[in-house]
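Shipment paperwork, digital attachment
Item: protein structure file
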Amino acid sequence: MSETVLPKEQVDPVIEASSPTPGTSSKNRGSGLVIVALLLGAAGVAVGGWGVWQVRGLQASHQQQSGQLQDIGAQTQVLKQSEQQLAARLAQLPQASELEDRRRLVAQLQGDQQRLSERLETVLGASRQDWRLAEAEHLLRLASLRLSALQDINSALALVQGADQILQEQDDPGSFAAREQLAKSLAALRSVEQPDRTGLFLQLAALRDLAIQLNTLAPEYQDKGESLLGLTAPGDASDSRWAQWWDELSRYIRIDFSADKNIRPLLAGQSLTQVRLALSLALEQAQWAALNGEPKVYTQALAEARNVLQNNFNKDNPQSKVLDERLQALTAQPVSVVTPDLAQSLSAVQAYLERRHMAADKPAAQARQETSP
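Attachment content:
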């Protein structure tokens, strides 16, 4: 084998090129140390900042925990006070045996109250019925009073109908006799016609106004253009003089060719006023009699009014004639009626009330006998 020996000159340059120089290596080491130192400083700063942040977080959490501890302490104090109050209330509460006794008393009281309310409803129901029946009796009394005092058929009919309706609401077979009498009274009231007293009063008032306006006028001579017995001729110079004399005489002298007729004096001044007053008073008396149902006074007053009218006023006067005809027509109008008697109906209702009270008193008497020793 042959060894190949390289020459020194060729090997050394390569070695020299690959190995660094001492100055260059020292610079590179210094820069690496600086970089490492900077990194270590940055890491130290970061570690210090992180430590500061951790410390502050711990302080904040410590403060928060201390606040929570204070709140918990305050809540604990409140709970302690509430516990003390509950303990005091529990100490004031009665024992279980006492509570059981009170429960039994409350149950007994509720039962007594329910029974009392039932009895009260029963008593009130009976009282309402009694009040209604008493109202029916009172209505019948009012109807009887209206008939006897005022002869008011319509009002009495309404009152009796109200009493019959109350008995109908009771739905009691025992009220048959009372309702039968009420039916008879209602039939009797319906058969009677109610006089129109208000209408008569107003008609008489209108006739009074007409009587005040009555007036008797003296007839005057009416010249027809003829001379008296030919004393004046047409064209005579004394025609105007005779006419003047005749006008004057005609006011004082009257010639009546019907002497067989009754001649009435003419009224004027105070006499006419007195006659009008007498006629007005007679009509006013007739008004009073119409309202109070007095037929005798009514007929007498109208007769007196007609007498005054016929004796003092002329029949030919239209006003006098109309007034006389109206007075004659009103004389035939009824002012009173024969009212039915409600005494039997009232007695029947009272008898029914007595039977009802007796039937209600028997159970009470038996209950008292049973409870008595």
